Amino acid sequence: MHLAQLQTLSPWLAHLTTWHVALLLVVETVPPTMLLLPAAQGGLTAAVGLYSTAFSQVDTAAAAPDATVQLGCLLLTAAVAAMGKGLELGVTDSEFEVVQQALDNSDRYYRVMATDINTRPNSAQRASLAFRSVVAAWLSSRNDAALAACGLCFVDVLFLGGLWRASGDLTAPLVAAVLINAVDYWNAHQRLAQLKNNNDKERRDGWNTSRRQVIKVPEGAVLRGYKKTKRKLRECLQLRAE
Hints:
By secondary structure, this protein is mainly alpha-helical. The protein has two domains: 2-208, no CATH class; 212-242, no CATH class. The protein has helices at residues 2-13, 18-56, 60-63, 66-89, 93-113, 123-167, 171-205, 230-241. Helix 1 packs across helix 7 (171-205). The longest helix is centred in the middle third of the chain and has 45 residues, at 123-167. The radius of gyration is 29 Å and the shape is flat. The two termini are 40 Å apart.
């Protein structure tokens, strides 16, 4: 589940600093919380009251207790939010189509790739079976991650809604939502920073040499794109040496 979240958040968090991540956290947390709690709860409660009055011709408070209406609206909001979270982290239609095409062509692909003298007759079949097992494990892990995200989102919305109803103040659920999401954003940002540092280190290690590199330029030569000055020529050589 954390890997799926990391893949979802990586386009936004790849080149952001800590302050940018904090600003993104507030922007991504406060408006959805305002929509889930005051806006959605108020709209659903008003809709229930309107339909109850229209169909039963009695007062809403007499038709159903206020706490029951609020609980039902909160459960409906949590269910819709959990469904959206599951669809976000689940396997998309395009991904499933690509995987299905790969499964359909796996036998033919490994038969073509296994045409070698030293290859056993059943090597292609075993490779195709291994590929199918890997695909099945990947689909199962993505589905499990989506189900876990659904459950956590459902509990999260219920917790925030209960905190809002118990405290009577919207500040408490907003602070709680920011703190809860801050953990995920912080872990994702640290993970991306670690991956970036590892990639940069591998790139630098690939250029390490045991002796100093010397670039010789014939006298009077002019490099393309640089004016014929000593300073420009020296800067260009330094860049190329690095």
